[in-house]
Amino acid sequence: MASDFSIFVIATLVELYVLMTVGSSIGAGNTVLLVIITAFIGSYLLKQQGLHTLQKVQKAVIQGSNPSFEMLEGVVIMISGILLLTPGFITDFIGLLGLMPWSRAFFLTHFLEKNANRVFTTMRTKKQKQKIMKNDDAIEGEFWED
Questions:
Q1: Residues 76, 98: contact at Cβ < 8 Å?
Q2: Least confident of 13-17, 39-43, 70-74, 116-120
Q3: Half-sphere exposure of 110 toward its Cβ, with a 13 Å CA cutoff?
Q4: Cα separation, 99 vs 97, whole angstroms
């Protein structure tokens, strides 16, 4: 928990530093204008990519295939939208990367390759616990002590 908070504080300080550096170079008004322009571009891309991903999910469902990758893309698009709404250049850059189909697919594939073992091990462990709890060898009954 403490490390999450420190990452948040450090990221905020770095973002402020970048904003102040850009502001001192091109002026405060131009910096604000640039942040607003990136927000508009990001919102356009967010809408476009969100609808495209929704169409891909619908197509996968109609074809009877599993739309889980497309749904993960939707999660990345949502997080990218949140990053684009956060004022700053670093968050805008990361958000824009999340809205580009090629980088989104690359990062999701890389993430799944690195974490698939852990995810499936957790799922297997849960299934084993459920199987133990549903053991058919158990005999139910009542016991009275006189």
A1: yes
A2: 116-120
A3: 6
A4: 5
